[in-house]
From TrEMBL:
TPR repeat extents: 98-131
InterPro entries linked to this entry: TPR-like_helical_dom_sf, TPR_rpt
Native organism taxonomy: Bacteria, Pseudomonadati, Pseudomonadota, Alphaproteobacteria, Hyphomicrobiales
The protein, known as: Uncharacterized protein
Coiled-coil region list: none
Residues covered by region (Disordered): 29-61
Signal peptide: 1-19
Amino acid sequence: MTHLAIRLTTLAMFSVAVAATPSLTPAYAAGGDTPSAPPASDTKGTKDKKKKTETRNPNSENTAFLANYRAAYATVYDKQDYTAAIAQLKALGQDDRADVANLIGYSYRKLGDYKVSQIWYERALKADPAHVRTWQYYGLWQVEQGNRDQAQYHLNKIAMLSGKDSAEYKSLAAALDKAPGSGPTY
């Protein structure tokens, strides 16, 4: 009887462990004109901070943020006015969001300021290590800098996060397929 109880307990513990284990299906994170949620903020604070938070309407703030983010996004991709886009993105006051930091990095890269661009890509990955669009753009940065091994690392990371059929993977793979020094890869 004791042996049966041990087996049942072991089976129950195993079942709970399997149920509690996260899915092995990869989570896909890219970037787009709708940014991901901001990083969790520190919940500690004074009563005054709590009162200010309670009186603000988070929906109107979020709506305003999204509208301004989309405007900056359009400035980057439609107008290709990278200097104006950087100003718009920084004015959002949300530099700690991966989508925002990534677009700032992309804009600096397009302006040819690779050192500052790198800082922003790394900031985006710190905010969200699974941000596929940042891995793609930073990989393109690596190709443009001649760091093909690092770009390959970024490509492998994208494959792991979003698969080889993703647009981000295909874009970076195409850039790596070009001969070194054969022109822009953006």
